[in-house]
Amino acid sequence: MTSGLSTIGMVLKSRAWEGAGPEGVTPTQAQALESLRERPASLGVLAARLGASTATASNAVSALVHKGLVVKEPGSDKRSITLRLTESGASMADRTSAWPDFLSRAVETLDPGEQTAMLRSLVKVIRTLQHNGDIPPQRICLTCRHFHPHLHAGSAEPHHCAYLNEPFGDRHLRLDCAEQVDASPEQQRRAWQRFVSQQTRPAGT
Ligand code: SF4
Known about the structure:
Elements: H1 2-20, H2 27-38, H3 43-50, H4 54-66, E1 70-74, E2 81-85, H5 87-96, H6 101-107, H7 112-131, E3 147-148, E4 159-161, E5 166-168, H8 185-197
Antiparallel strand pairs: 1-2, 3-4, 4-5
Helix pairs in contact: 2-4, 2-5, 3-4
The structure holds iron/sulfur cluster.
């Protein structure tokens, strides 16, 4: 299992260099461009989205500013700084963000049940890494104030998002949700216990 993940990690790293290297940016810089293309962010928020330390994100941003791909603008409270793509940065992001397609094609060979199980497993691994302090906070359902796992127990869509006020199943668990708001540590602990102690009924059964 871990050797399988290592292989995928190595392939991703090498493919990232293949995609980003010729464009003159590193994989971390390419990830920063893609994230800022989605929406501008402060340095701290960008570091969290990348799962990187503030120092690593800061180095990537400095290089991108130097290349004219990112600008720093005053934030809403005038003390903070917002990072935004320039026009060249946006077109660079279009080019460098194309590389993960090969991974999507590989994942599409899994049937829907396998894809859902894989997502559920990834969510658990990411939440554990975050809980142990091995990666910065990610915007996942399992740490969200709006997440109520197995509120509709026994259903194929057992979880509930209070923000959307809708039920949803494992296949719609989010790994980077813009509406995520951190729950209290106690709420996160309870959500985790409930999530891991119950299985979702497969769709159509
Ligand atoms: S707001 Fe987003 S992260 Fe929170 S429960 Fe709903 S879908 Fe999940």
